[in-house]
Amino acid sequence: MTISLETLPRHQAAVVDAIDWTRLATPEARRLRELGFDTGVPVQVLHRARIGGGPVACRIGRMTVALRRAVAGAIRVSVEPLAAE
Fold first, then answer.
1. Which end of the chain, N or C, is less surrounded by CB atoms within 10 Å?
2. pTM for this entry
């Protein structure tokens, strides 16, 4: 299943499937590339601001980064199935 990073449930493992670079300003796209966002990279949402439109904190590799909701909305992720406990 493919969804946007903006709507990915907290602590759900996912992999970046695609990034809509046309929805991002040049500095935003450059920052994502510098941070390592690319197809096939594992990502996880750690925290999301409750008050409308706040940032999304996510883990990519060993880094924790905050993304604006609009930027997170441009990133499509494939959700990995949850491991059975």
1. C
2. 0.86
